[in-house]
Amino acid sequence: MTSLHKLLSRTFLFLNPDGVKLFLEVLNDSSPQNLSNNDGLVFLKLYDPEQTQIRYIGMLFVKASSRPSDILPKLRSLAGFCADEEMELYEEIKSEPSAMCEALDANITFSESQIGHGDIICYQKSSKSLSHHAYPSVEIFFKRIQDLKAVVLGEQRKILALEEEVARLKHQSDLQTEKANMECQRFKRERDNAVRQLNELQDQNPQIFLEFPITNLLQATENFSDLCKVGDTEYGCVYKGIIHDTTVAIKLSRSDILFQQEVSILRQGRHPSIVNCIGKCSEVSALVYEWLPNGNLQDHIVCANGSPPLSWQIRTQIIGEICSALLFLHSREPHALVHGDLRPCNIFVDANFRSKICNFGMLTLFLQPGNHQPALTARLPYLDPEFLTTGELTPLSDVYSLGVIILGLLTGLPPLTIAKKVSEALENNNLHTLIDKSAGNWPYVQAKQLVVIGLSCVEMMREKRPDLLTKVWSVVEPLIRKPPAAPWPYVQSAVTGSYAPDHLICPIRMDIMKDPQVASDGFTYEAEAIMRWFDGGNNRSPMTNLPLANHDLVPNRALLSSIQEYLGQQRQPGS
């Protein structure tokens, strides 16, 4: 936070039972610094009646002499509305005990509307077409919040009065005391129900999904044409399409239950090594994901469609990324989230050969009575043997699957009986004969470390398998952090157009770092990216999801020197 004096601030609204609060969030210094007296910084919030949610969407510098109608195109662009979308604008006013708003006339100037520096403008689609929603406008939404707060406060006063009455009646009769306590509990339940409703209205989940109209999906897939289909599994059919000039993967879920389960799981948060869900279309139970052009890991292992073998450096990195994603899933509270179907076809590779997992937490749905049973033949080599006898999935089930994948990446052998073959080669000191030579000159010491950890993961009994954090990650993490023996391409630099070494890349922004800072998890991030992570209320590592000891940052000057040297080489003629 050493450059805090260079940062601008913004405020955003968070609604809770205790009132309306304004919080401070820092932004980068890319905005104008010298404002005239006629300029003003206003903050923008978008209200979504369908989700019953109001969220911060951006900020804008306006002139006092301009009108709200002048910024309507910008507001539509920020919200993703069409160019002719009719909208309503409101000014958010902070007042006790809650927030309120007033409608804005788009045709009078900001100065006439008394909109000044630091004010908040809320906007939405025209409520005329939204009357079927419970709270079609911002005004009604805020009024509902105030009403619920009044209910909560009223019930709390009733509870207090009742508790005083209980204390007095204790001296008269045990029967009267019991009756008063029962009445008190009834009021408490009513209070809790009102609080629950309030929390549902003001829920601001960190994972926000766009709601796409079905017309977008039909246009992107040519009415779900087979020509656009790229995958077909028990989870659903996957299509490749373009929405808003962005290539995406569109998955039509096999059932509404599968769709709701996947949405529920994906709402629990993002991770760099989990396929990013952009939005959904509830009308047809479809999910819209980022498009990963390099397909799945299975295709790369068998070099399908003439794809070149993955280098040993990339394979090591992939092992680390899968391990990091599993740590994130297993650390969910109050219960660990188990993938249950971890295998190479559910691990995808992006344009920079970064791996991301998908379809986690879904297998258990197929195992419920009455549901279609999944095909076990392809899954069998990766399934926890104890799961096959008990029907119970645990985090150690994922550890078993990870072990099979590690051995497969090391050797290129089919998964069935791979553990037995590798174990025999290790015992006979013939491990070098099994290591996949198409991956390049894999350092023997590193390969042996991964073989040992992979074999420990595929123990038949769960109690003998290693803990993912203390035993597996402690071995894998140092391997992926070691500088490579020779440079290899991972991420294409937007500045130079060439491929940059992976250790120069921020794991959050996926671009070459300008100000690398080491966080308390030991990973290096772009300063602005990690500070935004902290400012969003995150107290866990973006890479491991483990609690961070603190928010302190230490400049990585050695890495900064390497970055500057690399960029200098790229700018030289002929490089």
From TrEMBL:
Domain U-box: 499-573
One GO term describing the cellular component: nucleus
InterPro entries assigned to the protein according to its UniProt record, in alphabetical order: Kinase-like_dom_sf, Prot_kinase_dom, Ser-Thr/Tyr_kinase_cat_dom, Tyr_kinase_AS, U-box_ubiquitin_ligases, Ubox_domain, USP7_ICP0-binding_dom, Znf_RING/FYVE/PHD
Protein kinase domain mapped to chain residues: 224-480
SUPFAM superfamilies with a match to the protein in the record: Protein kinase-like (PK-like), RING/U-box
PROSITE patterns: PROTEIN_KINASE_DOM, PROTEIN_KINASE_TYR, U_BOX
Annotated protein name in UniProt: RING-type E3 ubiquitin transferase
Coiled coil: 145-204
Organism: Triticum aestivum (Wheat)
Pathway: Protein modification; protein ubiquitination
The keyword Protease belongs to this UniProt entry's keyword annotation: yes
Catalysed reaction equations from the record: S-ubiquitinyl-[E2 ubiquitin-conjugating enzyme]-L-cysteine + [acceptor protein]-L-lysine = [E2 ubiquitin-conjugating enzyme]-L-cysteine + N(6)-ubiquitinyl-[acceptor protein]-L-lysine
